[in-house]
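A.,

Following up on our hallway conversation. Structure tokens first:
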């Protein structure tokens, strides 16, 4: 949308502007309608009291303001103050440099003020600004009269300062009381206070019809020139209404009343619940075997007794063999054995001593090939309930052949990992079977199944909730090597 403001000059607003300094530059334009170009961050439009003060000053001078800006905060403040505002989209507004204080127009108006009464709100201004407002109004009126007279080639009518003041004061509006105390104005250079003259009854004579025609033609010419300038420097702005923060909150967990078939209730849902115990079975197979100890080493040891004392070795006595690396392999006797003492015989030519001996069956405590031991490796005996003694020398000697028979074999065992690899497919089959059964039950009652009401939900099954399962053979059980299979059964109540 392209705004046509050809009759309104543009006044750039500077960052350090206050209400008084801004209205002074507005008055310099001599126009009744002024466009304010406001960059982002201007302090005057961040303070609602300062904006209200600007509006009061503009009303005193009978000036209509239109504000252009890209700053949302500035636009909002202007709208609250009652200033027409236009949002500029896509064109950055840069702040203009602040002119020196010396460049401000002088407000030294020397008029007499005896007996003059001002509108409400005018006395609230400082003396310097009152002088500037009155001087601007008087100068504008004098310029208009001089322009009209020049167009008619006639000398301008003589107007005294009192006439100009009277004409300016006659147009000042009544101001409403301010909503809040205005902020303390910034320090300004002292200016001599104006002196006002008494209000005169002399009125400015209205211009002749020919003068009005020339004034109208001059205004039209200015409008055309301003329109051409504005057209060449136009920008596209977008005016949009403020967005209303409408929020839509969905209703969740709303209870719904259910009634049985045949009910005439109008505020409830006619429904009937159906229930079914569903079971689904899936077969699995263990493909990786594990080597486990199968047989234990065993054999017979012979113990020789060189002492006269009989030795009793009950079943469960321990015979410890040692391998070359020092590893101890315990064997246990499987029978009670009594080892007789040594006997001596005199043959005349010599005395012969015969050791007592006994054969003892032993079996390794732990199965597997690690229990196999070489010949004559048992070095210590620990009688059941007695003290240990060494048998590699002295009165007791143990001899034996190699103790063998320890071995491993490959076995198949049901593991937790085997079950977990099947449970996902089993739950899918369980849910599909449950829905088939519920559909059949609903159809038999003349109902239609609502899939969103099926419990347990699929999300619950994905979280491993709402069902039970069992494994046969149980986890940890050894399977038949020829057929290493197991069965997984899942069940739930739908």
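Then the amino acids I'd put at each of the 494 positions:
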């Amino acid at each position: 949308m392209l705004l046509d403001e050809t009759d309104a000059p543009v006044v750039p607003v500077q960052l350090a502007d206050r209400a008084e300094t801004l209205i002074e530059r507005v008055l310099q334009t001599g126009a009744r309608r002024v466009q304010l170009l406001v960059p982002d961050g201007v302090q005057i439009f961040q303070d609602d009291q300062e904006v209200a003060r600007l509006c009061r000053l503009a009303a005193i001078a009978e000036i209509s303001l239109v504000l252009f800006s890209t700053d949302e905060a500035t636009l909002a403040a202007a709208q609250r103050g009652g200033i027409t505002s236009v949002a500029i989209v896509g064109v950055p507004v840069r702040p203009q440099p602040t002119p020196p204080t010396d460049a401000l127009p002088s407000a030294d108006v020397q008029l007499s003020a005896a007996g003059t009464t001002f509108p409400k709100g005018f006395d609230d201004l400082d003396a310097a600004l009152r002088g500037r407002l009155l001087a601007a109004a008087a100068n504008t009126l004098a310029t208009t009269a001089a322009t009209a007279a020049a167009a008619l080639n006639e000398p301008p009518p003589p107007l005294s300062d009192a006439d100009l003041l009277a004409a300016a004061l006659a147009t000042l509006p009544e101001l409403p009381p301010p909503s809040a105390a205005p902020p303390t104005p910034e320090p300004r250079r002292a200016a001599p206070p104006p002196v006002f003259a008494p209000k005169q009854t002399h009125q400015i004579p209205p211009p002749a019809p020919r003068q009005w025609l020339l004034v109208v033609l001059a205004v039209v010419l200015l409008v055309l020139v301003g329109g051409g300038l504005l057209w060449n420097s136009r920008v596209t702005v977008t005016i949009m209404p403020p967005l209303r923060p409408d929020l839509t909150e969905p209703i969740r967990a709303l209870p719904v009343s259910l009634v049985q078939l045949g009910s005439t209730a109008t505020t409830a849902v006619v429904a009937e619940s159906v229930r079914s115990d569903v079971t689904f079975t899936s077969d699995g197979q263990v493909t990786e075997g594990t080597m486990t100890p199968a047989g234990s080493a065993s054999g017979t040891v012979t113990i020789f007794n060189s002492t006269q004392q009989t030795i009793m070795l009950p079943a469960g006595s321990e015979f410890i063999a040692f391998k070359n690396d020092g590893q101890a392999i315990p064997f246990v006797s499987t029978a009670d054995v009594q080892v007789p003492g040594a006997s001596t015989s005199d043959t005349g030519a010599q005395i012969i001593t015969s050791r007592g001996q006994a054969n003892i069956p032993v079996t390794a405590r732990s199965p597997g090939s690690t229990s196999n031991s070489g010949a004559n490796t048992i070095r210590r005996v620990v009688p059941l309930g007695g003290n240990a003694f060494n048998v590699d020398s002295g009165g007791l000697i143990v001899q034996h052949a190699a103790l063998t028979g320890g071995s491993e074999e490959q076995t198949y065992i049901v593991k937790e990992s085997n079950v977990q690899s099947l449970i996902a497919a089993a739950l899918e089959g369980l849910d599909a079977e449950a829905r088939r059964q519920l559909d059949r039950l609903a159809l038999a009652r003349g109902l239609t199944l609502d899939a969103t009401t099926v419990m347990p939900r699929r999300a619950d099954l994905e979280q491993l909730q709402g069902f039970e399962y069992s494994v046969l053979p149980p986890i940890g059980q050894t399977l038949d090597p020829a057929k290493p299979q197991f069965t997984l059964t899942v069940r739930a109540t739908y």
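DSSP finds eight helices and 23 strands in the chain. Curious whether your intuition agrees with the design.

B.
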